[in-house]
Prior knowledge:
- The chain contains eight helices and 13 strands.
- Strand 1 and strand 2 (99-100) form a beta hairpin.
- The protein starts with 7 loop residues before the first helix and ends with a helix.
- An eight-stranded mixed beta sheet has the order 2-1-3-4-5-6-7-8, sandwiched between helices. Strands 10-9-11-13-12 form a five-stranded mixed beta sheet, with helices on both faces.
- The chain is 29% helix and 21% strand.
- Helix 1 (8-14) packs antiparallel against helix 2 and helix 5 crosses helix 8 (321-334).
- By secondary structure, it is α+β, with helices and mostly antiparallel strands.
- It binds 6-O-phosphono-alpha-D-fructofuranose (P6P).
- Keywords: Carbohydrate metabolism, Cytoplasm, Hydrolase, Magnesium, Metal-binding.
- Pfam families: FBPase (PF00316), FBPase_C (PF18913).
- Residues 7-199 form the Fructose-1-6-bisphosphatase class I N-terminal domain.
Amino acid sequence: MSRKNQTLGEFIIENQSSFKYTSGELSRLINSIRLAAKVVSHEVNKAGLVDIIGAAGDVNIQGEDQQKLDVYANDKFIQTLKNRNIVCGIASEEEDDFITINSQDENNQNKYVVLIDPLDGSSNIDVNVSVGTIFSIYRRVTPIGTPVTIDDFLQEGNQQVAAGYVVYGTSTMLVYTTGAGVNGFTLNPAIGTFYLSHPTMEFPENGNIYSVNEGNYIHFPQGVKDYIKYCQMEEDNRPYTARYIGSLVSDFHRNMIKGGIYMYPKSSKATNGKLRLLYECNPMAFIAEQANGKASDGVTRILDIKPTELHERVPFFCGSKTMVNTLEDFIQKGK
Ligand code: P6P
């Protein structure tokens, strides 16, 4: 249930009953991500002032170490989740291993684990191009009150209870799902409040935008090469438009609104592609499917892939259902 100008806080409360697991804990978890997103947004939006506020490694006027923004974002999200005592474990793109929260406290009844890419596309910051945060939430599978294990994190994406992203663009937006559709909230920085601006977001069934780093074209599998040439042919509603920002969250967000496909294929240079299954592909795939889109590795549904390692990579194709189906046909023929 949604209504115009609803705040994120109001939305969470009014829709709590629709959560797959009716638990105030999940609401508090989404609220803590909301807080961290506001803090990171404030810092990202002044990145251009590095020469004034100091670059990473410098010591700022307050005598604090100036952090690289992806380290800063990582620290803020982890700190916020820890301080609110909501989760029992966290895995991050910035951390080699997962982090156990309050493991010494056998009364720790927290049942959720969070996997996060705190600042995806961070290489774009220096050129003032939008970046994003991606998060994925599961219920733990090991007994409550015990320290989490790797099994709590290596769950198939179809077990996610919530997933979302923050896009730090011309405005800061928080887009997420708890399995009952996808809703987008825009931050009013003047008052620090997220407002429901994009209710019930959905991918158009088809689209005419393709997003891929064509600089790697000669290294792609034949089927992907054939699909890219198909996108460029003067036929039907083609050629499509090529749009590639180099920031997954931004390319995904635009394609969800306008219709399109994002591709990060495997190649002779990256045998499993570049994107990480657990904290990039799975959350974006959950959002895509909840928004009437599709996400696969070219053959298998992303959400059905059984993870084996925390930072494993998979080829990633995601977007309008018809476009992903056509891509998969080209991969099948190109074998
Ligand atoms: P390339 C950013 O590093 C990222 O993980 C995604 O956000 C983005 O789509 C992709 O990698 C860009 O990678 O190899 O095209 O520069």
